[in-house]
Write a structure and sequence with these properties.
The complex is a heterodimer. Chain A is an all-beta fold. Chain A has no helices and eleven strands. Chain B is an all-beta fold. The chains are: A mainly beta, B mainly beta.
Chain lengths: 111, 110
């Protein structure tokens, strides 16, 4: 199993600003992912965070908008850049350790 | 394109009822199918299924995979108000990435 700490748990942000979400895992994991869940929607994979190299982004997501860092096997950050109200979502960090475990999520509201 | 479809999208039942949630999928190099329960923010893991015909059970919840039909069902017997949640089905291929369905919103009324 894996215990994932994610912060902030929630934030209210102004349009045009950027916010960085942190994800800390209690053990070393190879596969770490970032998901987004827009209001009333299911989870959509943003990217796979690769340790020591650039993240692998899914269709519709780009590095300029969602830069990701993965400095080691226990930590990753996701930045939501130049936010707009459409970015209001829950952002979830997840790791593959047998099954997929999720952090508690970061609920962002963009005004 | 890989996809996961769940049905129904929403369901309202009364305590004590039995419900069956459906999940069908199309994915390249299927590896596993997972069920999650989401009440507030983070989904919590329920089951992982990799082999056809083997039922997994946890209390009042059970699930089974049919690889021939590319589908799975999640059964909840004797439902309780605490079962009210969104139930998510997700499928992975050999990349380890999960593709999620739209979810089924279950409301259990007293």
């Amino acid at each position: 199993s894996a215990v994932i700490s994610q912060k902030p748990s929630r934030d209210i942000c102004q349009r045009g600003t950027s916010l960085t979400i942190q994800c800390q895992v209690d053990s070393q994991v190879t596969m770490m992912f970032w998901y987004r869940q827009q209001p009333g929607q299911s989870l959509t994979l943003i990217a796979t965070a690769n340790q020591g190299s650039e993240a692998t982004y899914e269709s519709g997501f780009v590095i300029d908008k969602f830069p990701i860092s993965r400095p080691n096997l226990t930590f990753s950050t996701l930045t939501v850049s130049n936010m707009s109200p459409e970015d209001s979502s829950i952002y979830l960090c997840s790791v593959l350790a047998g099954e997929l475990f999720f952090g508690e999520g970061s609920r962002l509201t963009v005004l | 394109e890989d996809k996961v479809v769940q049905s129904p999208l929403s369901l309202v039942v009364h305590e004590g009822d039995t419900v069956t949630l459906n999940c069908s999928y199309e994915v390249t190099n299927f590896r596993s199918l997972l069920w999650y329960k989401q009440e507030k923010k983070a989904p919590t893991f329920l089951f992982m299924l990799t082999s056809s015909g083997i039922e997994k059970k946890s209390g009042r919840l059970s699930s089974i995979l049919d690889k021939k039909e590319l589908s799975s069902i999640l059964n909840i017997t004797a439902t309780q108000t605490g079962d009210s949640a969104i139930y998510l089905c997700a499928v992975s291929g050999n990349t380890g990435k999960l593709i999620f369905g739209q979810g089924t919103t279950l409301q259990v009324k007293p």
